[in-house]
Amino acid sequence: MGYRKLLKDYMQHVEAIVGVDLVELAALTNALNKRDLGELRTMSAELSRESFMERLPTDQNHIVHDMLQHGTLQLSDLPLLNGINAAPQGNEVSLSDEQFQQFVHLLLNEAKRIEAEDSDAKNGQRR
Fold this sequence. Notes:
Shape: rod-shaped
Largest sheet: none
Structural class: mainly alpha
Distance between the termini: 72 Å
């Protein structure tokens, strides 16, 4: 693996974790010389172009995992989501991360409402 590939992979990792690739922070703090900074800016621009041109489908599993970690989704709710695919293969339209989260909340609320109605109906029959 060449140094450019390694560095671009690392820059992608940093951006995924922090939200930015921190190249401009290095420029502001004079941490690098102009030549090195120019090279990093070129790589950053290449990554931006590549990500724009190669939009990958949203990874709903990752979103659900994040929702579990943040407590907006409970493990007990996961069976209610079984079989949901927000962006089927071959479909040009997919949901954004935020839309998918709203979709999950809507489905869970509806599933819980239906469960409560079923439970109420069963309890009403027993009386």
